[in-house]
Amino acid sequence: MELTLEDPKPNKQNEMALRDATDRDVQAMLEVMRAAFVEYRKVLDPPSAAHAETVETVRRRLGRGRAVVAELQNQIVGFAFYEVQSDGLFYFSRLSVLPAFRRRGIGLALVEYIEGRAAEANAPGVRLGARVQLPHLVARYEKMGYRITRYMKHEGYTQPTYVYMEKIYSRA
C-alpha cells in the first residue's frame, strides 16, 4: 500500500480530516506506525514494542479501545490509539505521523481530538507514556499542558525508561 501523496503540503483543496478508525483502516494504520517508528529502531533501549505490531495486534488494540486517524486526500497520514483507563483518564498511545507529513500540526490535531473526546465523556483528563530517551517529545507534551506524573522502568532496567504524563482538567 502506497502511503505517500503527490503534494504533502496542506492547502485548501487538501485539508486534513480526522475521524474514528474502523477495521478497514488497520493495514494503513500499521504501515503508518512502522514508518513513524523506524527512526527509533536503533535508538530506544529497550526497543519500542511498536516494531512488533502486526495487523492482528493493531486489530486487537482497536477492538479494546478506539483510534483516531488523520487523512489527507483520503489517505491516512497519522493516527493514535486511545482508551479509557480504570481511573477514568483517557490514555493515548502509538501516536504516529508519516515522516513526510510532520511539522504540519497533524500530531497536535490528533491529541486535541482525543482531548475533545475525553472532555465530551467528562473524563478527568488524558494520560500518555513517553520515553525518557526522547526528551524532545516530553518537552512537546509539556508545552501542550501535560505534566510528568510518574517515572517508570521496563522490566530488567534499574533506571527510568519512560514517564507517564497527564493533563488533568480542572472542574470549576
Provide a concise account of the structure shown.
The chain has 172 residues and is of the alpha+beta class. Helix content is 27%, strand content 28%.
Describe the structure.
This protein has 172 residues and is an alpha+beta fold. It has a domain of 109 residues: Gcn5-related N-acetyltransferase (GNAT) (Aminopeptidase). The protein contains 4 helices and 7 strands, in the order βααβββαβαββ. Strands 1-2-3-4-5-7-6 form a 7-stranded mixed sheet. Helix 3 links the parallel strand 4 and strand 5. The N terminus is likely disordered.
Low-confidence stretches: 1-12
Biggest β-sheet, characterized? 7 strands, mixed
CATH class of the domain at 17-125: Alpha Beta
Distance, first to last CA: 48 Å
Percent of sequence in beta strands = 25-35%
Question: Which terms summarize this structure?
Answer:
disordered N terminus; seven-stranded mixed β-sheet; alpha+beta; Aminopeptidase; 27% helix; 172 residues
Helix-strand blueprint:
Blueprint: E1 17-20, H1 26-37, H2 55-64, E2 66-72, E3 75-84, E4 90-97, H3 106-120, E5 125-131, H4 135-143, E6 147-152, E7 162-168
Parallel strand pairs: 4-5
Antiparallel strand pairs: 1-2, 2-3, 3-4, 5-7, 6-7
Helix pairs in contact: 1-2
